[in-house]
């Protein structure tokens, strides 16, 4: 991807979304790389999908785009922020659904703000992985992959800060 920090990896996975999304979801990873962003291990790449369940993450039931999967330093509870089906309004609660018992504690005010201003994408956590998808409406370039990896790493960092603040 134009940087010595990234190495091409196989496209066969395992990918964290395979245990979460319905088996009817068709997601094809076309290329993948591994690297580091903000001291977090990342797998990222290019994919296509035909999966109505992805419309809550990408805004489109079918398409092409990029993904980023961030390896967390320790597991976090199952958690997600997805687009609402009718995503109208200006507030976090108008535009996004947060899922998971720990959502009220871990999705703090800063994370809500950066979702509303589209700084970070919708995402899902399963175990030690946080993953995100983004539709791309132009030829996919390395910068698209690197951008999503950075934005997903910001989500991970904010969640880890909130998790470390929350009493056990």
Structure in words:
The chain is α+β, with helices and mostly antiparallel strands. The chain has one domain (7-165). Helices cover 26% and strands 33% of the residues. It contains 5 helices and 8 strands, in the order E-E-E-H-E-E-H-E-H-H-E-E-H. The protein has helices at residues 55-58, 92-95, 103-106, 109-116, 142-165; strands spanning 7-9, 26-37, 40-50, 62-71, 79-83, 96-99, 123-126, 129-135. Strands 1-2-3-4-8-7-5-6 form an 8-stranded antiparallel beta sheet. Strand 7 and strand 8 form a beta hairpin. The longest helix has 24 residues, at 142-165. The chain is globular. The termini are far apart.
What number of structural domains do the residues give? Answer: 1
The secondary structure category is alpha+beta
Averaging pLDDT over every residue, what do you get?
90
Give the beta-strand count. Answer: 8
Beta-strand content? 25-35%
Instruction: Tell me the series of helices and strands, N- to C-terminal.
Output: EEEHEEHEHHEEH
Count of helical segments?
5
Query: Quick one: biggest sheet?
Result: 8 strands, antiparallel
Low-confidence stretches: none
Task: Summarize the topology.
Elements: E1 7-9, E2 26-37, E3 40-50, H1 55-58, E4 62-71, E5 79-83, H2 92-95, E6 96-99, H3 103-106, H4 109-116, E7 123-126, E8 129-135, H5 142-165
Antiparallel strand pairs: 1-2, 2-3, 3-4, 4-8, 5-6, 5-7, 7-8
């Amino acid at each position: 991807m134009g940087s010595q920090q990234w190495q091409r990896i196989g496209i066969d996975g395992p990918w964290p979304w395979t245990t979460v999304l319905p088996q009817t979801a068709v997601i094809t990873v076309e290329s993948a790389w591994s690297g580091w962003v903000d001291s977090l291990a990342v797998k990222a790449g290019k994919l296509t999908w035909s999966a109505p369940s992805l419309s809550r993450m990408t805004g489109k039931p079918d398409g092409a785009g990029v993904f980023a999967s961030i390896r967390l330093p320790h597991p976090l509870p199952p958690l997600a922020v997805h687009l609402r089906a009718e995503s109208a309004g200006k507030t976090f609660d108008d535009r996004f659904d947060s899922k998971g018992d720990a959502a009220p504690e871990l999705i703090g005010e800063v994370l809500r703000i950066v979702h509303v201003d589209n700084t970070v994408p919708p995402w899902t956590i399963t175990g030690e992985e946080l993953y995100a998808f983004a539709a791309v409406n132009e030829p996919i370039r390395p910068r698209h992959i690197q951008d999503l990896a950075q934005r997903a790493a910001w989500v991970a960092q904010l969640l880890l800060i909130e998790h470390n603040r929350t009493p056990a």
